[in-house]
Amino acid sequence: xxxxxxxxxxxxxxxxxxxxxxxxxxxxxxxxxxxxxxxxxxxxxxxxxxxxxxxxxxxxxxxxxxxxxxxxxxxxxxxxxxxxxxxxxxxxxxxxxxxxxxxxxxxxxxxxxxxxxxxxxxxxxxxxxxxxxxxxxxxxxxxxxxxxxxxxxxxxxxxxxxxxxxxxxxxxxxxxxxxxxxxxxxxxxxxxxxxxxxxxxxxxxxxxxxxxxxxxxxxxxxxxxxxxxxxxxxxxxxxxxxxxxxxxxxxxxxxxxxxxxxxxxxxxxxxxxxxxxxxxxxxxxxxxxxxxxxxxxxxxxxxxxxxxxxxxxxxxxxxxxxxxxxxxxxxxxxxxxxxxxxxxxxxxxxxxxxxxxxxxxxxxxxxxxxxxxxxxxxxxxxxxxxxxxxxxxxxxxxxxxxxxxxxxxxxxxxxxxxxxx
Length: 421
Prior knowledge:
42% of the residues lie in helices and 20% in strands. It contains 12 helices and 12 strands. The protein is elongated. Strands 7-8-9-12-11-10 form a 6-stranded antiparallel barrel. The two termini are 41 Å apart.
């Protein structure tokens, strides 16, 4: 069950500790930053502030009342005393004199508080955020994404065959491998991304302001980074390196809450593990089979993070594209496809996984599975497929049989190359 926590280890408490170290020093400054924090995380921020400073647990409405009175009393203290006091002294004075709730008062030492806070939110082995922090941060990020109508994606990663790795090499080697894996993941993402150890050999990465296609690219980047790191090879030729499987889900398309987002990404991860591991799989609730229709469309593809190359489609469906190109592609690779639909409109884009590659005249036939397509492009693509079902608008490839009912309508096949974004 996901719910925000006000105590140590929560994202809100972590922000408050940071502000106590480097934040404002005046009542006006604290009034402003707490208002901003409330807008992001809700009224529980005042209960979190008081708990961090006093270890007293208040309902959020009562905590807000105390906070307003603390500010007024703090301002009065600063008017009466030449040397200005800080927030900790103001809170101590309020509860000691006005409310008499602190019987053995002590001003909190921020360095000690930071060490306590760190031990509550970080995983001891990997130094990534821990499961509890991830739970709280997921709720906060979903709330923020919903409030500002922005995208949010989640990657769930699992080290492939890690039990066998542990059993054959020992737990010490397993722990070292997890540390290296955590370091690889942390270096490969942005500072704003939240990398957490979800449990055992499973990791979770929150990607704020990142739509699904961008998350798929990042997932593939991480998969390749782990593969290149050669974790577990230790300079031994032929030793199998550690790999990861990745599940991807996004807000708002796949889920409406933090709990749903984790569930969808976890389902995608399960599929990635079941189809061969060491791959990236997005969540999809589509389970129907799609009929393939012969069509010749000019387009371009690129391996994620690499230069683009030209191809021509042989047939396509809502579920995949069979294309012909001059270069072979590694099976399992994610590619970004651009398809030029008639009559010369802007191309549509999708991410696809290479399922099979066979040699063909002048190049290779590459079978791909569409794993993600933006909604606006989906509508255009499905409309085009409906037109194809009514009667082909583009020529079938030479040497391939046309489906029954093909009326042979043609599309001018001298379309110009499509520039990549």
